[in-house]
Amino acid sequence: MTDLSISRHADDSTKPQDTTAADINPHAVLGAEIIIEQLHKFYGSVKVLEDLDLHIQPGEFLAIVGRSGCGKSTLLRLIADLEKQSYGEIKFKSARHIREGITSDDIRVMFQDPRLLPWRSIEKNVQLGLDKAQHANASALLEKVGLKEKADLWPTQLSGGQRQRAALARALSHKPRILLLDEPLGALDALTRLDMQNLIEKLWTEQGFTAILVTHDVSEAVQLADRIILLDKGHIAKEFNVDLARPRQKGIAFTELEQQVLTAVLAT
């Protein structure tokens, strides 16, 4: 690896001593800290991300909003190592109190398209990439996402919402330290979307992974995130802390924050 590569085995010695996973999420046991410094991404002469700095705490739920083309999905793909940055660094640190590196196996991505293999049953899809000893964990997750009775069906026999539930179970069956969510609920109807939001929040609370959500839905960002960042022209234009109790209710404080974020997005 060169100095411009993503650091997959960062040294815990530089981690701030007064910050722990419990500061963000008292249930966090898996989440990884992510430190992004001077990140640039160019496609030819087009600048997608420029001199971006971002620190994500272990177990934090971060939402990224912004207009189309602002670099949201590109940032997610760089964190997942699906693309390489032009320069800059992305470093990971374990939330555990031992010297332990974070590898690409600790990161899972959930896309808008569930990307299930049509020739495998739902259970076999969720078990994909797991050792035989881990298959029971996959089956348990199917029960958690409400698909225990659908385990033997083919993906085409499920609704769109059920397929996304299966995709979520597949991602979490690997017990990731980081879960990246790239508009995973964008194609769902309103009620199914709300159900999925509640399910994602429930599993995040239980498992404590670090979650990063890219969404065009400002209400969804406020509903799920601890913090929201607004990207504009490859930069972080604004940040919003979501100091609302969970589970969240759409009261006055929720609506006011939602309007603040929406106004900021519209101003970009």
Q: What does the model show?
A:
This protein has 8 helices and 9 strands. The chain is α/β, with parallel strands linked by helices. The protein has 2 domains: 32-102 and 177-267, Rossmann fold; 117-175, no CATH class. Helix 4 (135-144) crosses helix 5 (160-172), helix 5 runs parallel beside helix 6 and helix 7 (218-224) crosses helix 8. The longest helix has 18 residues, at 190-207. The radius of gyration is 18 Å and the shape is globular. The termini are far apart.
Quick gist of this model?
This protein has 268 residues and is α/β, with parallel strands linked by helices.
Biggest sheet: strands, sense, closure?
Answer: 6 strands, mixed
Class of the largest domain, according to the CATH hierarchy?
Answer: Alpha Beta
Task: Quote the distance from N terminus to C terminus.
Answer: 37 Å
Query: What is the 3D shape?
Result: globular
Assess the beta-strand content as a share of residues: 15-25%
Percent helix: 25-40%
The neighbouring-strand order within the major sheet is: 5-6-7-3-8-9
Would you give the CATH topology of the largest domain? Rossmann fold
H/E series:
HEEEHEEHHHEHEHEEH
- Computed over alpha carbons, the radius of gyration is 18 Å
Annotated CATH homologous superfamily of the largest domain? P-loop containing nucleotide triphosphate hydrolases
Q: Total helix count? A: 8
| Integer tally of domains | 2
Low-confidence stretches: 1-28
Got a strand count? 9
